[in-house]
Fold each of these.
Amino acid sequence: KKKMILDLDTGVDDALALAYALATPDADLIGVVSSFGNTQVETAAQNTLKLLELLGKSDVPVFVGAAHSSTTDNFETMQVSMDIHGKNAIGDVALPEPKTIPATTSAVDFLIASAHQYADDLVVVPTGPLTNLAAAFKKDPQIADLIGNITLMGGALVVPGNVTPYTEANINQDPEAADYVFKHAKHLVMVGLDVTLQTLLTKQETQKWRDLGTEKGRVFADIFDYYIDAYYNLDINKAGAALHDPLAVGVAVDPNFVTLLPLNMMVDVNDGRTIGDPSRLRDPHKNNYVAVEVDEPFYLERFMNYTLAVLS
Ligand code: BDR
Ligand code: CA
């Protein structure tokens, strides 16, 4: 069985990535790393601790990661995401203070130690900026060749982006880190915005969580309904909101319901656009695979089965 580490900037869809990871029978969640992104890193870590407690999984350790990229304080982008994820990044739903605290080990050191311990059996799923992973690669370059699988939510092969017409938020917030990780990872799967935008959840589905009659079901329905309302009000989509981050978790353990294109990527560090790397385009060795299509009905059914089980 694979060992999974999530790297979350714990906002609304990151919360669902966590629920999906806990439900999947194909991997053990050995820890959650926090990143800035949808919110500040401390808030992301607190959100993760609160959600783990709600889900009865406080034994999963949480590690605090980067507060910002190496080039900016990322203040502006964090402000923008409040419109979509809420001021506390989880739909302004208030959760009790967690009884647990983050681990004393840093996110980078946890990633490095896990890479050495589990190597090919380790799956890392970043659903925020790639700052932590790039820092771990730089501190211990060996681990880039050890980690068996990195499957991330970020970027887009085909426009549009969501921060600018060409760029997606996770990559845009730390383009240098993303470029470094794309180029150095042994095996990296990019689940981009053009694909995740095909996976929508509506209030019909969140009502099913509510109908469970559990506190967890109500909380997750409230959190996601906020996101659906934000998508509606900001005119992103009138029907529902995208299941970005859980799709990366799903693909990390079972790539069979997406179509993957072997294509070595790079990031335009000026704006965070993900593009094919011209210098590695004809390299017969591919270390990057880009999702180009998803079997949406299959994913949605599995997503609902998993989340209904975890929220019961
Ligand atoms: C990504 O950005 C964040 O707002 C979401 O959590 C997701 O990871 C989508 O562009
Ligand atoms: Ca995210």
Amino acid sequence: PLATLNDVLTELKDKPAAIGAFNAHYLDIIPHLIKAAESQQAPLIMQITEATLQNSGIDNVISLSMRLIEKSSIPIVIHYDHGKDIDRVKACIDAGFSSVMYDGSKLPYEENVKRTKEIVAYARPKGVSVEAEIGHVGTVSGEGGDAFYTHPDNASEFARITNVDALAVSIGTQHGLYKDTPKLDIERLKSIHRKVDVPLVLHGASGVPDEDIKKVTAYGICKINIASELKAPWAQAIRDFQKENPDEYDPRKILEPAHKAYVKAVKEKMSLLGWNHAA
Ligand code: 13P
Ligand code: ZN
Ligand code: NA
């Protein structure tokens, strides 16, 4: 059934446990993601970015997802990832997303507070959960400017004033695939965890060593965002398939190994987080 971040994260807050939040990049991958979660009996946070909405269409994403979610045996959150435009975030709430991220992390603090509050005021009466970000998780390529770390006192005040349901923090991760192993600032996370009462979110979790993924779940991280580590094996599977089958031109045959590689990567992350009850 359809769920919000509160439905799936609140019970994990004081446990060393987290849920994977996986990006679905196009319509066809949505049923594969849901099937993967069902086979592991794992609660699912399915994330959709603006780029996906532009390609696939918001109504198509919602109608396909809702049809599958209604029939599913596991709680599924359909979450708009990294919404930067207030009107667009509101449109996603209106369209049927059960959860949204408003990402004002590049804005001055006061502006981030103001806009996040506006989204919370819009979302809450509709029963939609809101994630926001304080500090800024950058990208490996450096695109979009430098990352800045989350200040614990800042995070505490931000969470209190905005009343968000979940808070993304910056503790050394980046979006994309790292050139070197990232070094997480666990002491900073511990101090954020002591001061912030809402479930915390780790963005840029692709490429973070397994031990660190497990470690952060003990200090308030309840949602682990994974996109690049799904896209990379998807693309590699296509390259491998085409090398072995250079004359194949049936899209379904070319996509099949890519879907399998995506599902395998999702299941591995779910198992790492302890969600492998059907295995
Ligand atoms: P990665 O690029 O590390 O997978 O990060 C994903 C993410 O944070 C999505 O919001
Ligand atoms: Zn992110
Ligand atoms: Na990453």
Amino acid sequence: MNVLITGYEAAPFYKRGGLGDVMESLPKALGKIGIEARVVIPYYDDIKEKYNFKEEGEFTIRFESVVESIGVYSSLLPRTKIPFYFLDNKKHKFISDKRGKDKINQFASFNLAVVNFIHWVSEHHKWIPSIVHCNDWHTALIPLILKQKMKLEIPTLLTIHNLNYQGIGSLKVLDLLDMRDEETKEIKRGKPATEINVLGEGIVHADLVSTVSRSYAKEIMRDYGKNPIAAFLKKREEEQPKIDGKIIGILNGIDYDVWNPATDKSIFHKYDTNNWETGKKDNKDDLLKSLGLEDRPTFCFVGRMAKQKGLDILIKTVDGLDSLNINMIILGVGDPIIQETVLKLAQKYPSWVRAEPIYSEEFAHKLYAGSDFIIIPSRYEPCGLIQMIAMRYGTIPIASKTGGLQDSIANGKNGLLFEKGKSIRLKKAIKHALNIQKDMARYRKMVLSAMRKDFSWDKSAVLYKKLYEEMVK
Ligand code: NHF
């Protein structure tokens, strides 16, 4: 079976968040179980500058009543035979950080380009996708374009990695796509006729909709009653009352080739479950030395500085931990205001808090290897990869009880969960973690249980395979 996977980003070529990792790891894992997946994303300037691929061909699309030419570039995913394609809009360049209305239009034209690319790749590479797997709002118009404009009978799966990004904009985008009223009146029903919710269109028109954990799938159906997306979720449920109307939850995995303390080149001392105690100690010594911190129980935070990630909760908590004799290291970039507050926090407690407002994969590896605990105070977390990575490195997660965090951490066994949004609960969990660490037998058991938990993509890939098979039946 052939699956075309598409989305905003794909590591290692272009990565801004967890979706980038999924777009790299999922096709690899599918390949191992006999599914031929290929990936297509926009050819942003950031990718061009780094890779400068050779053009393989071009085709045209009609967008905004003008004929635009789209260049096709490709590369094999390193160390695999999986082709990744990059589409280049020659006139209106695809830009990775485009804002506002232009952003909706840009991704609409990218979606149209992907649908036309299906013809191109079938003809030029003799490869016909049996399924198109879309990810997030950036590719959520594809099901509609495929069905109503191109009349192509290829089943579509839409995976939601974050429901809070929906792509809301002017309905005029449909004119630009040259989709006439008769074709789109269905989606105007019950909404202001001037607005389009791109993710919503995907939810209504995709053959199947999934998300990245079972708990988040439940939260989507339960917690979004007042959100603009609710009408679309309801419509889908009503129109497809059987299994198809539901949102299916499949937990992501992590790439064990990249995240493996036994082979990790970025860390000071490689280790596995047999020598983790000395391995982690050496990495911790190295980490603390580089930051000028004393040897104490060490907690870290790794992630985007965004409201979703609950840094305000962590900041509030840290203020009450001065007497605990711990280290707290915070790594991440994002919202300038949050960044500023974190820096101030580090200035306030110079002997035990460090803030590194940078994007550094290498430093993240060192933190996973050298910390004792990782704090993940997310307000919501569709899946979360950080807890899985940390656990593989024997770093115990202390995380909000929500979404994928809840589905991947067994409270008290391989990590600790606390009620989301509550700094008092986080403080209590931190104290509890310190007590566990004092009880060496219990702590050892917990670390080993975390390190041994299977978060490889293999399990999830099988579940995706089952979904795909259902879709082509
Ligand atoms: O892991 C990849 C990622 C998730 O929880 C994460 C998120 C965005 O918020 O599926 O997407």
